[in-house]
Amino acid sequence: MDQKKINNSKFNIRLPIIIAITLAAGIQIGAKFFGSRTAISDVVKSSSKFKEILTYIDQSYVDPVNTDSLADYGIQKMLEKLDPHTAYLPAKEAELAEAELQNGFDGIGVEFNIFNDTVYVVTPLSGGPSEEAGILSGDAIIEANGTALTGDKVNTPLIFNTLRGKKGTKVDMKIKRKGFGELLDFSVIRDKIPTFSVDASYLMPDNITGYLKVSRFSETTYDEFINGMQDLKDKGMQRLILDLRGNPGGYLERAVSIADEFIPGSDILVYTDGKDDRNDRRINAGHKGVFEQGSLIVLIDEGSASASEIVSGALQDYDRALIVGRRSFGKGLVQAPISLSDGSELRLTIARYYIPSGRSIQKPYVNGDLEDYYNELYERGEHGEFFSADSIHAEQGKAFKTMGGRTVYGGGGITPDVFVPRDTSHVSTYLFELYNKNVIREYALHYANVHEAELKKQSVDSFVRNFEISEAMCSEIVKEANKVGVKHDAKGFTKSKPFIQNQVKALIARAVWKDENGLSNSFYKVVNTDDEAIKVALKSFGKAEKLEGK
After folding, report:
1. In this predicted model, what pLDDT tens digit does every residue of 192-223 receive, in sequence order?
2. Which residues on adjacent β-strands are paired with residue 347?
3. Active-site annotation holder among 331, 363, 505, 525
């Protein structure tokens, strides 16, 4: 396999161009913003053409027909003519989807989107089995356990039924990944999907910079966030890195509450605009925040979507934070959950989200990898050359002003103030095979189990500073890889060696020092030492301080 083609592998631990299947997080935004709707408008009459045709089929068609199945199929095909996020869920699936953000569930741990009869991963859930297996944002799931997930029969119920299941059971998937000619095989073991949403909250070695990572906006996110922030302030935090990379969204009210903790005053945080004035809403800041003063940097990338874009966009528009990373996903459509008479649910796009500067978050829904296109343009400084497509075409490349007079650009998603390209210098075919066979994780867990008592004689911070993955340990990894059929590639191993060592060390730390409340501080303390976006952020606080003093 040509190494040049391996651009989007697992190998950035938080590389979020990842598309997956269990949590429809963004849908919760419309539910909380607009409330549930329990009935169809009176404008839709019972004598519609659709119902007439079904009635004739039921009464007169020559063979027995399940009209419920026909109706579901017709609805699915009809919605395909709309935007990528309008969806229909049968009663059972609607009930399961509602419970996901509240109670957790068993599955492979991904958020997905169906586009052009293909299932694409939006992001893997942090700490879930798909992330550990190496599923990436942007992957297309072609087949799972022998069931085809492409074509005109693919729909949300089929995906749920195929990918979710009992903890401990296996899903064998065939994945189409950009840059690879052949399909890639992945085996993911279903597990309980974690309900915690703040992955890390710790003070960095300089003792003044806090790091807090929010992986999604669930029912408990705001409380987790406040607890983490208070702990950081008690330890002397003066400035903060808020990591929203790979955050697919979730409950809007949790997201705007967090934004409100940083933004003083009572100005607008987000508003919507739809065809019907009843769907036009405004949410304003409203209370004294926990960190309204102090330098703030927000990290985003291609996996940052929906509610996380509202947070980062509002902070950018008020010049409250410096945004570092890559252009975000661009999901700015509002879905209202409309309960139908049989318990099924229509999630209908009724409006677009706009952040304070007037920018729409939604990217054009056209074919092609627009995230890569946007990032390339930004890196070259060509902010204004965006595609013209759909009904927000007038905003493509349009310049907007932040409250402090800085220029920002429309076109969907949030454009960072400081661009950080993907680091693929460590990527090799050999590394991909190690991940595909789960060699790195299994070796790290085994080492942690054998040496736990010895390692715990020191603190995790001492471990981060002083522990090294030795040459002997590297040789053991190679031997374990050979046992599972991964042929040694000296050139590939040399290229990926520093990354492999960092990953093994981080996984050992997480296994030995088990943090409370779902946190993975020990893991991120190791990983972030070699994270390019973190390095850039730490060097960019001078720019963030200038914003603060605007």
Report:
1. 876 689 999 999 999 999 999 999 998 899 99
2. 87, 337
3. 331
Q: Is 317 a catalytic residue?
A: yes
Active site residue 172: no
106 is catalytic: no
Q: Which of 427, 372, 422 is nearest to 4 (CA)?
A: 427
Q: Which residues, 6 or more positions from 356, have their beta carbon under 8 angstroms from its beta carbon?
A: 267, 268, 269, 270, 313, 314, 317, 318, 403
β 268-273/282-284 pair status: antiparallel
Question: What are the tokens at 521?
Answer: 């501080």
> What is the average pLDDT value for the chain, to the nearest integer?
83
State how far the Cα of 5 lies from the Cα of 368, in Å rounded to an integer. Answer: 18
- Note the pLDDT tens digit of each residue in 422-435: 888 898 989 988 98
Which pTM does this prediction carry?
Answer: 0.76
pLDDT of residue 423: 84
Give the domains, in start order, of the chain with CATH numbers: 3-25+40-192 (2.30.42.10), 198-423+539-548 (3.90.226.10), 429-528 (no CATH)
Query: Catalytic pick from 139, 317, 372, 530?
Result: 317
Q: Which of 137, 295, 304, 306 is catalytic?
A: 306
